[in-house]
Amino acid sequence: MKILVINAGSSSLKYQLIETETQAVLAKGVCERIGMDGSVLKHSGKKKIEKTEAMPTHKEAIKYVLEALVCPECGVISSMSEIAAVGHRVLHAGENFKDSVLVTPETLKLIESNTDLGPLHMPANIMGIKACRDAMPNAPMVAVFDTTFHATMPEYAYMYGIDYDDYKNYKVRKYGFHGTSHAYVSGRASALCGTDKIKTVVCHLGNGASISAVKNGKCVDTSMGLTPLEGLIMGTRSGDIDPAVMEYLMGKKGYDIHEMTNYLNKKCGVLGISGVSSDFRDLEAAAGSNRRAQLALDMFSYRVKKYVGSYAAVMGGLDCLVFTGGIGEHTVCVREAVCADMEFLGVKLDKAKNANPPRDEEVLISAPDSKVKVYIIPTNEELYIARETLKHKDD
Q1: pLDDT tens for each residue of 295-308
Q2: What is the DSSP-derived secondary structure letter of residue 188?
Q3: Three-class SS string for 39-91?
Q4: Is 146 noted as a catalytic residue in this protein?
Q5: Is pTM beyond 0.90 here?
Q6: Of residues 37, 99, 116, 146, which has the active-site annotation?
Q7: In whole angstroms, what separates CA 360 from the centre of its chain?
Q8: 328: Cβ–Cβ under 8 A, 6 or more apart, which residues?
């Protein structure tokens, strides 16, 4: 059964067509610069193509994606009727949904009501749903949220220490993100361990980075909060910070609140610390001769280690530690630094396996006598979205 997975951003639209029985990616691509001059479709199917087309909105982008999928030269299907359903990655479920959901007029209104919680991403997500619905009126549309895997957090974990009425009135609480990745990777960890009755910490480490505590298959805590700014130091995000820093720096730098938020999201993190790059490959290359590049690596790894330890405490122990995402899968020094001096917790790394793991494969990198299994597990969010979509196809 063929599922089309759509990930609509503010000026881009990524897609994959997945055969769910074989897990094969039949076609994939991206529309870039939507709403701007020079918009382009990059498609990989029967063959690769790149086409410059006018895409003033996501509606035109969807039109060109569907044309590419059925194109005799580069397409992979003969008609759109072969697409059983469309799964849409949607940023925010608010408190309305605890799982993925079939898009109906009623559920779409609830999705739209959460736009304030994700003003940068939600409008594009909603435009993607509407554009696909208009182009494919007979195909079920399913919303798969970035936040719902974390909906199992207990109230004492997701609440902030603010006036309770402000939580009730304005929905101010921790929600967490990267949920499709945490769900997929923790599920694979359970499969590799042969049971979901385990205590797992998943480290999704990329330019955006987050950690989750997963006990018996359910998320009990996660590092990101109301927005993706909370938690780890990231590529350009500050992560956890004393809120009073904002007022202090606003006074010193003459920023208004919007400039301050942009600063914390786009000019901080390892980029701001190192002054070199937000790319960890650049940081590793510079670390030998650049103190700030090494400092950025050390700060990032230290923050990850703190979260791993705190989540082990929250769950009453640790059975499995997993690294995923571009940094988690490919940055040897980060994994080694996170696992260093963690024998007291049962974590013992096999340094040889960690130093040269097979690329893009699930691999055990803990030592044979390690009480905690340490894995590298490549994430596959699109496959997870396709599987979630399949669950609702006949709703």
Answers
A1: 999 999 999 999 99
A2: H
A3: CEEEEECCCEEEEECCCCCHHHHHHHHHHHHHCCCCCCCCCHHHEEEEEEEEC
A4: yes
A5: yes
A6: 146
A7: 17
A8: 203, 204, 205, 206, 334, 335, 376
